[in-house]
Amino acid sequence: MNEDSYAQRLSDFVEGTEFEDLPVEVVDYTKRIILDTLGCAIGGYTLNRSKLIVDVARELGGKPESSILVTGDRVSSSAAAFANADMANALDADDTFLNYTHFANVVLADALAVAERVGANGKDLILAVALGFDVAARISLSLTFAELAENGPRLKIGQVTGMGYITIGGAVAAGKLLALDRFKMADAIGIAGSICPSPAVGKLGRSPRWTSQKYAPYMIMGLSGTLAALLAAKGYHGDRTILDGDVGFWRFQGATSCASEFMANDLGSKWWILETSVKPYPNCRYTHPGLDIFLSLMEEQQLNSANIESVTVSVNPVLWIRAGVFICTRSRSSRY
User: Fold this and answer.
1) How far apart are the C-alpha atoms of 90 and 51, rounded to whole Å?
2) Alpha carbon distance 213, 207 (integer Å)
3) Can you spell out the DSSP letters for 111-168?
4) CA 149: distance to chain centroid?
5) What is the Cα–Cα distance from 170 to 136, expressed in whole angstroms?
6) In contact, 324 and 157? CB cutoff 8 Å
7) What's the rounded Cα separation, in Å, for the pair 267 and 252?
8) How far lies 45's CA from each of 91, 162, 212, 266, 305, in Å?
9) pTM of the prediction?
10) Which residues contact 44 (CB under 8 A, 6 or more apart)?
11) What are the mean pLDDT values of the chain's consecutive 10-residue runs (336 residues total)?
12) What is the distance between the alpha carbons of residues 224 and 167, in angstroms, rounded to a whole number?
């Protein structure tokens, strides 16, 4: 039964946690993240790419059980999650976990779609989002995508990188609302880990032309997360050891190593949603320090657009590699 697998340990935590177990600050901050993500999705709908996504979601159709945000179209829960997850990231204004990745767009989209499907209440939704976010964060933080080379400060960077852990977070949120038992939740994690998008983040960041999906296909993550949970609910078995071993999830996401034990450290006492931030600017979090400095200089020197011919900002080239700066600046021990 793979009782000691990391998927099973995470599943036991998710299945055994109720709303009353959430600290007050976690409840409050989860509400804030939910509201912020909804706002990002509403704003994201104004973009042409989002309207294309919504058109496809309408064509996917299905049983009218969940709503596409803004339009109100009712489609299947998976189709709704498909559209809403992508809209929430479209402006790049959504929350950013420790300055390097996003979870709330998919986790909320999956939770919201399934919550509407099953008639869940607000407490159920908050709990599902907090748990899905926590699992995604734990798996993400266990992965290393960049590290210092042995012979000096040069970075060793995994050229193939993925963000499939977000899909697992969505599956956990959806699975909690479907009341999956501890074994079916582990199945959902196994399924989500195997059907998440290919690790194309590194490639998309180097693309000679900007693509509609930017650096990750959030619409597919939203769709896959709900599908994984729904399949598990029907009794479809997933690999409950997906997170374990030398050929586990970390390997086919392009990580250079995995600190597996981190996934289960301080479960229930450390809530990672408290480490995500609400963006003041609708663009990549890595660019925010430069914007802060620029705006401070404008105020200090009383500058306006008529006084400025050009602005040059120098950044570390590793910013184009997902998670590079975050991982390489922390040793294995301090990362915990």
Assistant:
1) 11
2) 12
3) HHHHHHHHT--HHHHHHHHHHHHHHHHHHHHHEESEEE-TTSS-EEE-SS---THHHH
4) 28
5) 8
6) yes
7) 25
8) 9, 25, 14, 38, 30
9) 0.89
10) 50, 86, 87, 88, 89, 90, 91, 93
11) 88 98 98 98 95 97 97 98 97 89 96 98 98 97 76 60 93 98 98 93 74 86 98 97 94 89 95 94 83 91 90 67 36 33
12) 7
Task: Return the structure tokens found at 146.
Answer: 């960049």
- The first and second tokens of residue 248, run together, are 């586990």
**CB burial of residue 168 (10 Å; 0-12, 13-18, 19+):** buried
- Residue 210 tokens, joined: 């900007």
Helix (H) or strand (E) holding 260: none
Instruction: Report in angstroms the alpha-carbon separations of 117 from 12, 168, 170, 319, 327.
Output: 24, 20, 15, 39, 38
**Contact, 138 vs 146, CB < 8 A?**
no
Amino acid identity at 212: S
In contact, 216 and 197? CB cutoff 8 Å: yes
Residues 6+ apart with CB under 8 A from 164: 192, 193, 196, 197, 199, 221, 249, 253
At residue 75, φ and ψ (nearest 5 deg) are -140, -170
